[in-house]
């Protein structure tokens, strides 16, 4: 898939990491999967599999903030996660403000008839929203 202009996006959480993928040419994101965030070894083994499979040229990580834009308790963890992805896999990482992505994900799933209790769907959908936001806010190069 080299040269496919693929982008992976992650919604980092203490228990689960939502994953979405998209293409820089088509500029459409889709929910992909959810990875259990059990520990560092499991987390990066799973990230390695996804990166090997999709061969992204860019990674987008949601950056949680409070509604007023100030750092959230998860902000530093999400930044560290993105920096570790970059260091381990040598793929450029950008961060996107993910305020309200989970709320938007819950609304999108409800509109699609999916129960919000299905947390795995919610996390992957949040990653999709984060990636779509990146596409919508950045002019193609």
Automatic annotation (TrEMBL):
InterPro entries: RNaseH-like_sf, YqgF, YqgF/RNaseH-like_dom, YqgF/RNaseH-like_dom_sf. Residues 5-105 form the YqgF/RNase H-like domain. One of its GO terms (molecular function) is hydrolase activity, acting on ester bonds. One of its GO terms (cellular component) is cytosol. Its EC number is 3.1.-.-. CDD domains: YqgF. It is an enzyme of class 3 (hydrolase). It is found in: Cytoplasm. Belongs to the YqgF HJR family. Keywords: Cytoplasm, Hydrolase, Nuclease, Ribosome biogenesis. GO terms for biological process: rRNA 5'-end processing. The keyword Acetylation does not apply. HAMAP family: Nuclease_YqgF (MF_00651). This is Putative pre-16S rRNA nuclease. Could be a nuclease involved in processing of the 5'-end of pre-16S rRNA.
């Amino acid at each position: 898939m080299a040269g496919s202009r693929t982008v992976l996006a992650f919604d980092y959480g203490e228990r689960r990491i939502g994953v979405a993928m998209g293409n820089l040419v088509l500029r459409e994101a889709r929910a992909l999967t959810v990875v259990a965030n059990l520990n560092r070894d499991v987390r990066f083994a799973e990230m390695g599999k996804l990166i090997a499979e999709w061969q992204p040229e860019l990674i987008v990580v949601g950056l949680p903030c409070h509604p007023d834009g100030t750092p959230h308790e998860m902000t530093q963890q999400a930044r560290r996660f993105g920096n570790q992805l970059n260091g381990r896999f040598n793929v450029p990482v950008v961060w996107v403000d993910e305020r309200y992505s989970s709320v938007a994900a819950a609304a999108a799933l409800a509109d699609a008839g999916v129960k919000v209790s299905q947390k795995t769907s919610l996390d992957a959908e949040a990653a999709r929203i984060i990636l779509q936001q990146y596409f919508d806010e950045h002019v193609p190069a």
